[in-house]
């Protein structure tokens, strides 16, 4: 059963650590507790989005560099 993970704070969502770098996770990737799935940037401060549960990343609800609001769905974990 899939669980939808929500943004912990508002800002800009990044799937990679820097432009040109590979994404932290792709759809279908295994996710372990503590894995970084993305970053949310607020006023040049980057906060990692860290997995609190293990599973498989099913799908992202947002694209790289999308603006997100706190509580907005980010990705599904199965």
Task: Please characterize this protein's 3D structure.
- With 78 residues, this protein is mainly beta.
- It has no helices and eight strands.
- The chain has one domain (3-77): Beta Barrel (OB fold (Dihydrolipoamide Acetyltransferase, E2P)).
- Helices cover 0% and strands 46% of the residues.
- A four-stranded antiparallel sheet has the order 1-8-6-3, with no helix packed on it.
- A hairpin with a 2-residue loop joins strand 4 and strand 5 (45-50).
- The protein is globular and about 35 Å long.
- The chain starts with a strand and ends with a strand.
- The model has no long low-confidence stretch (mean pLDDT 96).
Please report the distance between the alpha carbons of the first and last residues.
Answer: 6 Å
CATH class: Mainly Beta
Oligomer: single chain
| H/E topology pattern | EEEEEEEE
Mean pLDDT level: 96
- Specify the CATH homologous superfamily: RNA polymerase II/Efflux pump adaptor protein, barrel-sandwich hybrid domain
The name CATH uses for the topology is OB fold (Dihydrolipoamide Acetyltransferase, E2P)
Low-confidence stretches: none
What is the count of distinct domains?
1
Q: What is the rounded Rg? A: 11 Å
Number of helical regions:
0
Question: What strand line-up does the widest sheet have?
Answer: 1-8-6-3
Can you tell me the overall shape? globular
Largest sheet: 4 strands, antiparallel
């Amino acid at each position: 059963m899939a669980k939808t993970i929500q943004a912990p704070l508002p800002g800009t969502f990044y799937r990679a650590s820097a432009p040109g770098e590979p994404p932290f996770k792709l759809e279908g990737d295994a996710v372990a507790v503590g894995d970084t799935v993305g970053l949310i940037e607020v006023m040049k401060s980057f906060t990692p989005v860290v997995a609190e549960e293990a599973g498989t990343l099913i799908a992202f609800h947002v694209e790289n560099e999308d603006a997100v609001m706190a509580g907005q769905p980010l990705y599904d974990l199965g």
